[in-house]
Specification:
By secondary structure, this protein is an all-alpha fold. It is 53% helix and 0% strand. The protein contains nine helices and no strands. The longest helix is centred in the N-terminal third of the chain and has 22 residues.
Length: 196
């Protein structure tokens, strides 16, 4: 009887642990499966084929990628990705996200202006960008990697934040700390693209 009780308790503990892990967002993702599922992603992302409009996904934090895919699927973010994400399951999103998170980002051909990189570093420090995006701008959790991202993509996203087309956390569009002015955006992006 004690053996049965111990087995039942162990089974219950395992079940509770598994349910907790699933509910807390811990992914039991399969990066190898994500590689196969990501084939279509590479048609637009990571190549520069679309003139820097599609961001580099390699090295992005997996929770951030899952959050963005879910936002497209739920139509909380606009764009062609709504169609691409519409048929994805949560498992697909996690697999793809884990695959890209494990990849090393490639260097873009963009060569920033060294004087603007210096100004951008100063502005990033003044704005406290690293407090969310990490000191190396690699991102974490649901905060994206900015280091080495396409110049054109970052400029467009900062504009989307300023105009209210996309939320930057919970900051209102008029918040020039979280949503820098166009002048600040240029030097910030020059700095961020220079990071590895």
């Amino acid at each position: 009887m004690n053996e049965i009780r111990r087995f039942t308790l162990q089974g219950a503990r395992w079940t509770i642990s598994a349910l907790f892990a699933l509910s807390s967002g811990v992914a039991f993702a399969d990066a190898k499966s994500g590689e196969a599922k990501s084939f279509l992603c590479d048609l637009c992302h990571n190549t520069g084929t679309y003139g820097e409009a599609a961001p580099i996904l390699q090295g992005q934090p997996a929770p951030y990628l899952v959050l963005q895919l879910q936002a497209f699927k739920d139509k909380k973010r606009a764009g062609v990705m709504q169609t691409n994400a519409s048929g994805m399951s949560t498992e697909d999103m996690r697999d793809i996200a884990d695959y890209f998170a494990a990849q090393k980002p490639f260097r873009t051909p963009f060569r920033p202006d060294p004087s603007k990189v210096i100004l951008g570093r100063q502005r990033a420090n003044a704005l406290g960008c690293a407090s969310c995006h990490q000191s190396d701008y690699s991102g974490q959790g649901d905060v994206p990697r900015l280091a080495g991202q396409w110049y054109g993509y970052l400029v467009a996203e900062l504009k989307n934040f300023r105009t209210g087309n996309r939320a930057h956390g919970n900051a209102p569009p008029a918040d020039t700390v979280r949503n820098p002015t166009a002048e600040d955006a240029d030097v910030l992006v020059q700095f961020l693209t220079a990071q590895e």
